[in-house]
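Sample pair:
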Amino acid sequence: AAVAEEESGSPVNLSANMELEKHGLHRSEHIARYLTQEDYERFDYILGMDMDNYYRMKYRFKGDPKKKVGLLMGYTDRPREIEDPWTTGRFSHAYDEIEEGCKAFLAELIRDRVVAQTKGIWRLGYSICIPFAYLTMKSLLVSFSKCRHTNGLRC
């Protein structure tokens, strides 16, 4: 999903797809679509890459009353924005940061699930949306699929 209407209909950048291939991932055929209010109702987490994404999502979702909006790198030991590789040309660096953010986010979900289970609260799955992910959600999905069977998370 895109946080700006002008991004709707855009395919994944060629350099982003080349970076995915360097990591053994298939090229993405994803086409951007505008983030909707239905997305807000559907997803448990809506994570942006930078403060511009964050503020646009907060505005789009009327202040985020359900506290679903955040930054992907906010889950890491060094919270920060992910620089936009379209302006820097550093797709490899963006990939590494997205991977770091996904691993930290996954660890948080696992901690959340363990704490919830110790309190007798069972959570079967999470819905996650990462608008305007610079490379695509494939890095997140790969991180989740690696732990799906060992930790029981379904994403």
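The helical segments are 14-22, 37-42, 51-60, 85-88, 91-118, 138-151.
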